Amino acid sequence: MRLFLVLFVTVVGLSCANRGRSNIARDLFRTYSQRVYNKEYDLVRSMYHDNAVTVEKGKRAYYGPDAIAKAIKMYHEDLGVSKTLNTNEQFIELSNDFVYYQSDYESELKDQNIRGTYWQIWKKSSDGPWKIIHDEFSIDKDDDN
């Protein structure tokens, strides 16, 4: 019985620790999203690691915080996103220093709808803050448009 109790407490403790780190990923992504949709591109830029890469699947890639922030601004200006819904979200602790976010998304634009997948890997910097080291997305247009 004592062994069972020790195992139970250990499993619950690990589960709570992982949940806490999953909350870190959730909080990081929420802050990131708010900054993107509030058009706070300098703050968005500050969330990327110096060697970060953003990839539009099958099309192009952007290297470094400056290029990535400019690309995000360009996408939002060109597409004119009015409403986005993220579904199937996953917030995963990869280790103490890495967390992962993944989702499917659908965006309603003025003249069309787009959908796709989106994911990010965050790394905890040696000086403290979490930074995005890689994110990747796809843009698929709905067949009805």
UniProtKB/TrEMBL annotation:
Keywords: Signal
Highest taxon, organism lineage: Eukaryota
InterPro entries associated with the record: DUF4440, NTF2-like_dom_sf
Signal sequence bounds: 1-17
Positions in coiled-coil regions: none
Pfam families, per database record: DUF4440
Transmembrane intervals: none
Domain (DUF4440): residue spans on this chain: 27-132
Name of protein: DUF4440 domain-containing protein
Species whose genome carries this gene: Diploscapter pachys
